[in-house]
Amino acid sequence: MGPIPSNIRKKARKIKLLLLDVDGVLTDGGIVFGSGGEELKRFNVHDGHGIKLWIEAGHGLGLVTSRSSIAVRHRARELGIRMVYQKVANKLDTYRKIKKKTGLTDAEIAYIGDDIVDLPVLIRVGLAIAVKDAASDLRDKVHYRTREEGGQGAVREVIEIILHAQGRWQSLIKGYLT
Hints:
This protein has helices spanning 6-13, 45-56, 70-79, 91-102, 119-122, 154-165, 169-173; strands spanning 17-20, 32-33, 39-40, 60-64, 83-85, 109-113, 127-130, 144-145. It is of the alpha/beta class. Strand 4 (60-64), helix 3 (70-79) and strand 5 (83-85) form a beta-alpha-beta unit.
């Protein structure tokens, strides 16, 4: 990971909750249907381990997705993600509910998105992030674009940036270095 721009580092220090879109952020955006009609998704293990470290750091993490999938529910359970909102018609309404439930301010929340349905939330959060391969309409509306594409480690990249900015990364990985 290269140097973190000072404006991103400043915003990242305040983050307590990370919200993610799923398709195109936590996955590569592809949707595969099995022969029985079940929806299959491919998740990145680096993103998954980053999420576990994020939660271990005591931070909150939530998924906000327009679609509904058993695979998402299963992956969330596996990673210890308790805040899962599926089949969301209006992400801004859900964002407002999350803020009310958590008592957090916009400045304490980061959001990673990939398409225009994410814009209403992205323009409000303290740290707005688009994945590398996000829709072009997001590019000038976010604070940071990842080097990695959605489903290819973009979530892990963001988690590392925030935890480095907060001075937490080294203590979290210390156990792996001994």
